[in-house]
Amino acid sequence: MDTVADKTEKNSGTQPVTLAACPVTHLKGIGNKTAEKLKRLGIVTVQDALFHLPLRYEDRTRITPIGRLQPYEPAVVEGIVELSDIKFGRRRMLLCRISDGTGFLTLRFFHFSSVQKEGLARGRRIRCYGEVRNGPQSLEIVHPEYSFIEDTETLSTEETLTPVYPATEGVHQLTLRSLTDNALALLQKIPLQELLPSSVCQKIGFPELHDAIQWIHRPPKDISLSMLMDDNHPARKRLVFEELLAHQISMKQLRQRAQKYHAPVINAKCALESRLLATLPFELTGAQKKVIEEIKKDLLKPCPMQRLIQGDVGCGKTLVAIMAALSVVEAGMQAVVMAPTEILSEQHFNNFCQWLKPLGIHVAWLTGKQKATERRQALEEIATGKAQVIVGTHALFQDEVEFKNPGLIVIDEQHRFGVHQRMALREKGKNGKQYPHQLIMTATPIPRTLAMTAYADLDVSIIDELPPGRKEVETIVVSSDRRDEIVARIHHACKEGRQAYWVCSLIEESEALQCQAASDTAVLLQECLPELKVGLIHGRMKPVDKEQVMSAFKLGDIDLLVATTVIEVGVDVPNASLMVIENSERFGLSQLHQLRGRVGRGSEKSSCVLLYQAPLSENSRTRLAVMRETSDGFKIAQHDLEIRGPGEVLGTRQTGMMQFHIADIIRDQALIPQVNKVSEELLVDYPENARLIVRRWLGETEKYGNVG
Ligand code: ADP
Ligand code: MG
Hints:
Layout: H1 7-11, H2 32-39, H3 46-50, E1 56-58, E2 74-88, E3 92-99, E4 104-109, H4 114-119, E5 125-134, E6 139-142, E7 145-149, E8 162-164, H5 173-189, H6 198-204, H7 209-217, H8 225-228, H9 234-258, H10 271-279, H11 286-299, E9 306-311, H12 317-330, E10 334-338, H13 342-356, E11 363-366, H14 372-384, E12 389-392, E13 406-412, H15 419-428, E14 437-442, H16 448-454, E15 459-463, E16 474-479, H17 483-495, E17 499-503, H18 511-528, E18 534-537, H19 543-555, E19 560-563, E20 576-581, H20 589-596, E21 607-612, H21 618-629, H22 633-644, H23 646-649, H24 672-685, H25 687-698
Parallel strand pairs: 4-6, 9-14, 9-15, 10-12, 10-13, 11-12, 13-14, 16-21, 17-19, 17-20, 18-19, 20-21
Antiparallel strand pairs: 1-8, 2-3, 2-5, 3-4, 5-6, 5-7
Bound molecules: adenosine-5'-diphosphate and magnesium ion.
């Protein structure tokens, strides 16, 4: 490929050959210092500048007469300064009144210099831009952008909508606008490399890349804001497509790389499995059998399995993990099971012991909150291989943990883990040249197209069947004013020998206060229900105490269990048939679904009461209605995704994954199947283009590939 012009060439005025290789310092006004700052935005080359896309646009093409201003709308206003005064209230501020003959407007500054104050002198003409609000005396703009107009001047308004770019400290909108102005000017001379095969562009009818970039940075004069934000505009689609493609390719490369690693070939004899199956009081569901077969096929391969199991709450994922663990144990290797919370790891530990001990398999448990002696023992068993199955929390990541020969790592409830953590855990389990197989289980199922994007580095299995006999959980939405009725309902249910959960809200910011709130609620409920045994469980209790409470609840010694969200994932008490969730409007839908999944596991008809604090916002009303109307985890996840966005739902926001310049995987999901096809085509037939597309959109550090 052609390289960028070197320093002498720059000085002699020769143009570099590609924009992808041309440093931003080539552009007018960008010195080394600015270039350093631009790096923080991922802008190193002119191409990077062109792919630094506007977040939104502002309409500064018209001047609005002050008399026609509307609150909450941004506007350009021109007027003469009538008065400008420093006010000393609770905060010192500068108030400046301007008028244009149709009305007057206040400009309010909380931060200002004396030069600024002097400048805004009576009689000066200014033009300003900002969002108009209702002020105490008149409409006002807080901290407007403004400039002075000399008497003789007639300042023209902006010709196009004004782009607003993602910025960073020390790099202002004006810098970014002039940066992109200059980059676009250079684009007129040197085209961007078209990386999509022409067959693709033709088939999809995309505009030229060049035109799409020009359009998105400097929208045409006559276009309105609403037209500009239209998702289906071809220019936007063109860029969205390429960005989705870049992510897809990057994830697939990650997967290809993983397939080059070695993993132990595990040819399950199934002796242990048959013995376990013989003791189960039920048959595996068809879906469980299908997924277990898929796993066994993966284990036969000499490269690490990377499989995600999606299945609704209660579909029996734990047993599938146990079956996988058995194959590995039978081959003389360790199986590691990682859960997101202490309490869930504990429950898994108990379950695994219950199923595996009779088969003579030794299970160890490791968490962060164990006593030193217990912990030392667990660490030793893990290192010597005495522990054949190891259940734990994040504590499994720690340096002191040394596995003897891990053949399988199971990650439960993976939506809390990012791609990086998956890779880090794989590294942790590395044994000589061999990597362990990985199985990831999630109860937040997501639509297929989204899974293709979010999990493109994984094979996906779906358990689409619940064990027979599960009853639909009746869900009712009730204002907290009617708490008494709910308490009566609990009384009634428990008198009939059933059990109930009461989940306390997330009102308090701190865990400590939350736990306190749960304690208070438990006391209150006990007072209202003197005949019942009320128990309490929350995240700050010692593991032994939690264990005691959970087993008392399991044994039926506790009728009503008051809990913080620690019971969210995985807890299994079939006799519990009533779930009350306080302040349910504050929870995410997937979280409510998880909580609701704690009931309806036995033969009794179960209910879930969603208490809310009136008044409900429109949005909350809709969300709670979704909960009432469906129990399908896929549908619920879809709604959750639409409302909260994929970053929140998949827990990827923190990990920086799935962050896009222009694409939105919910809004643009219709494109994904095609993106998927094209990504295959590029990887096979145009690998160099594939590499360049990833570089263009994801930058130097391939986002997903830089761990391990
Ligand atoms: P999840 O998929 O939510 O993790 P679990 O693995 O906790 O679900 O299983 C929920 C309950 O269903 C457990 O009590 C488990 O023993 C039971 N279970 C699992 N598979 C079956 C089956 N095939 N038939 C009946 N019950 C089952
Ligand atoms: Mg589970």
